Amino acid sequence: MQATVKWVDGRLFLGESGSGHSVVMDGPPDHGGRNMGLRPMEMLLLGVGGCSSYDVVDILQKGRHDVTGCVAELTAERADEVPSVFSKIHLHFVVTGRNLKEAGVERAVKLSAEKYCSASIMLSRGGVEISHDFEIRELA
Fold first, then answer.
1. What is the mean pLDDT of residues 76-85?
2. What is the value of pTM for the model shown?
3. How far apart, in whole angstroms, are the C-alpha atoms of residue 2 and residue 80?
4. Between 20 and 30 A from 97 (CA), which of 36, 62, 80, 118?
């Protein structure tokens, strides 16, 4: 896997993935930025949510569950001192579908957390306390 991050000006950076996709990162005005993009730590948090959501949906679909939606709501706490690393991350999944069973969704979330989500497993091994829960919404 490869990527490049190019400084544009101020605190504005352009990241490009090896697959050719780009993202803008910037800082807040009080730190020399213009607030024109995501903060790098926000990108890291989104990466955890994206990685785990990918797993949950994939596991449910492979299990032939009738899943129609999955939203991961993430909250994080950071250390007060520098480096201001994540100390806690909580993922709350809102899974929508037809006749979804609690045991199936619970299994998908657990497998992602313990076996498949490289991003969250890497951070938890680095000392970040990561927790998960979920709710199921029946599709009307």
1. 96
2. 0.93
3. 31
4. 118
